C-alpha cells in the first residue's frame, strides 16, 4: 500500500450538504476498495488561479490516504463522471505529514489581522 494526497475541487455553487455527500461518496469508494483514509480536510471556498468551466472559485476537499493503484484508478474513474467536480489531483508520497493543517487559521494570524 502506498500513501497518497488526493485533492478535489467542487463547483462554487455546491451547497454544504452536497459537499458532505461528495465527501461520503468518495470515502465509500476508497474504503470499499481496501483503502484507508488517514486524514480529511475541507479547505473551503477559495479563488481559482484561472476560470475553470466558468467558475472563479471552488470548494477544496483534501484526503490523505493509504491505498493501492487499483483504488486510485477507481476513484479517478468516478470523479471524471461527476458533474459537481471541476478538477482532481492525486500525488503519491513516501511519507505523509498528518500533523500540519496548512489552511487552518492559527491564533497568531487572527490576532495580527485584528490589529489592522
Question: Would you summarize the structure shown here?
Answer:
The chain is of the alpha+beta class.
Description:
The structure is a single chain. With 116 residues, the chain is of the alpha+beta class. The chain has a single domain, classed as Alpha-Beta Plaits, CATH 3.30.70. The protein contains 3 helices and 4 strands; from the N terminus they run βαββαβα. Strands 2-3-1-4 form a 4-stranded antiparallel β-sheet, with helices on one face. A hairpin with a 2-residue loop joins strand 2 (36-52) and strand 3 (55-67). It starts with a strand and ends with a helix.
Keywords for this entry:
116 residues; Alpha-Beta Plaits; 4-stranded antiparallel β-sheet; 33% helix; globular
Layout of helices and strands:
Layout: E1 2-11, H1 16-32, E2 36-52, E3 55-67, H2 69-81, E4 85-93, H3 107-114
Antiparallel strand pairs: 1-3, 1-4, 2-3
**CATH architecture, please?**
2-Layer Sandwich
Q: What's the CATH H-level superfamily name?
A: Ribosomal protein S6/Translation elongation factor EF1B
Query: What is the approximate shape?
Result: globular
CATH names the topology as Alpha-Beta Plaits
Evaluate the radius of gyration.
15 Å
As laid out across the biggest beta sheet, the strand order is 2-3-1-4
The secondary-structure class comes to alpha+beta
For the terminal residues, how far apart are their CA atoms? 48 Å
Strand/helix succession? EHEEHEH
Total of domains: 1
Taking pLDDT < 50 over at least 5 consecutive residues as the criterion, the unreliable ranges are none
Mean pLDDT: 86
CATH class: Alpha Beta
Q: Mind summarizing the main beta sheet?
A: 4 strands, antiparallel
Q: Supply the number of helical segments.
A: 3
- Helical proportion? 25-40%
The count of β-strands is: 4
The percent range for strand residues is 35-45%
Amino acid at each position: 500500500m502506498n500513501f497518497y494526497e488526493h485533492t478535489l475541487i467542487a463547483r462554487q455553487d455546491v451547497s454544504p450538504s452536497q459537499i458532505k455527500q461528495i465527501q461520503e461518496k468518495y470515502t465509500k469508494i476508497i474504503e470499499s476498495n481496501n483503502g484507508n483514509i488517514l486524514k480529511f480536510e475541507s479547505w473551503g471556498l477559495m479563488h481559482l488561479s484561472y476560470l475553470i468551466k466558468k467558475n472563479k472559485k471552488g470548494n477544496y476537499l483534501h484526503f490523505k490516504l493509504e491505498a493501492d493503484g487499483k483504488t486510485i484508478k477507481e476513484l479517478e474513474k468516478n470523479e471524471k463522471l461527476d458533474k459537481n467536480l471541476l478538477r482532481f489531483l492525486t500525488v503519491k508520497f513516501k511519507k505523509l505529514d498528518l500533523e500540519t493543517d496548512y489552511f487552518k487559521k492559527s491564533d497568531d494570524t487572527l490576532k495580527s489581522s485584528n490589529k489592522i
